[in-house]
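In response to a reviewer's request, we include the raw inputs and outputs for one of the modeled complexes. The two entities were modeled together in a single run.
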Amino acid sequence: MPRPSNEISSRHGAIPGSWRTVVSLLLFIHLFCVLVVVLTFQGVLSPFLARLKSSLRPYTQTFALDPELIPFYLTDASRMSVDHFIEVDVDSQDQSPLRIEGAAGWLSRAGECGRRYERLAAVLSFLGEQGDDSVNLIAKDIANHVMKQEKVDKVVVRSRRHLLQPTRALQSGNLASRDPNDKQYFRTPYQTRAFRTDDDKINLLKMTAPGEAAPVGKRNKS
Amino acid sequence: MIEKVIQYFELLGNRLGEAWNRFWFTPSDVFPCCLLRIFVGLAGLYYLISFNSDLTRWFGHDGLVTTETVQSLTAPVPGELASSSFHFSYLNLFHSQTELWVVHIVGLTVLTMFTAGLFTRISSVLAFIAILSYVQRAPMLTGQFEAVLLMMMFYLCLSSSGKYLSLDQLRKKKINHAVGRPSHSWTATVCLRLIQVHLALFYLVTGLSMWGLDTWWLGDATWWLLARSGARLADLTFLYQFPLLLNFWTHSVVAFVLLFAVLVWQELARPMLTVASVVVWSSLALITGLVPYCALMIVGNIAYARAETLRSWGARWGWQTTNSESFEAPSISNPNIAGPTTLRSRHQSTGV
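The model returned the following structure tokens for the whole complex.
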């Protein structure tokens, strides 16, 4: 352990000598944990690193120090680095789908409010494509929320992906390709039918294969 | 021979120990922590306010993400209820609209107290718990902003960030309690050093992950960012006609992020890096729409700034940035590991 420095301990506001060792130890442990979780926040880990990271979880997760899958790199142009949104077909007179999103406007777009809906849609798309069972839990929550709100017993929940337009599309003479909102730029990674049973539970029935396109909805619900 | 090896390791141990002590424990000015408290508090306040319009929609009984779903998603083994998950949040205990609004208003009050610097020692910890609870309630909804915000709030709990620019300062002045209290402490050093190291680590990891991605190497990344019509603030897609400009922009971002992590430890480079930081993060805010995150990264520069510079800027704005009884403290922005000459000159200036 570092030896006390006379220069430091003699100054006003200095750390008491007896505390220095304890604080140094705590700092060292904390920095070690931060270093491990931040440097291994993405990618495949060796069994050793995975076990080490897992053993630090009680501390790093409690204080949310682990950035886990947060894309600090901003974009990798992959399927997860594009816009996502959730649409719900409500069994009603109005046939246009309901879009689950935050308040409209510039402030929502520039802020965290609108981002949360987008992140939820991205998670739904990702888990849906992976065939992960957890996707059903999210879809049930969304379906239940809309059913209660719209007072209906069956809905169709889908996540939509808005693909990015490559620069060559803008250079091409094809008018459809030049339109960033053309249907060729939309995919449906996950879609399920949800209905409420007599015992007030939500059942799901997966509908379409991943990647199938569907028309773009216009009705917004904030 | 063995004696020399032992001597070498003794010397190494002593030097490392001294450097460690200088780096972490040299008492430093609290002012940068106080300034950070205001900006970070405002960011935290904004974060909570952003839930105002849809608080029950997210966290209510029939919300979009129920507690059970989150616990299942965050479990180490997916699908299992997370008994070994460590995402604690007081919001898990409240579900009705009234309950949620009561705790939300309490959270807003705590954040306001922290920002204004009222009972800062306590309100900083409570504010951190409040923000942490919102993040832990639904971790899958969080992004870069929350990661940086929580990190800064966590470290600000360690220092007495209510010393200046705060209601605490006014309160103590009224009861004449501040006399003889120093304006610098080792806790401020630990707080600022932790923010500096952690932020530099974020920059390093960001830079390295960009370095490893084809989109950033090929110079396309800024195009892919500004092509996201749902996220960007301004439509700059006309720039497709200038591919070299897009390439340059992309490479500049990677270069800046990587250089920041390395050069920020050199005091001479800091003014340049601060200016570059404002330019790069502002441009990224424009094309990504991640305004709160980019703003917080700019605010992060305060942790590296010289306390004297910040004080002089504050004085220009009419802030009371000194206690009359306090003497000038050495700034930790002045690298404390610089060696005996720097330390000697500092001792002369502070009269120690």
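As requested, we also summarize the result in words. The first strand of chain B starts at residue 28 and ends at 29. Chain B touches chain A through 95 residues (CB under 8 Å).
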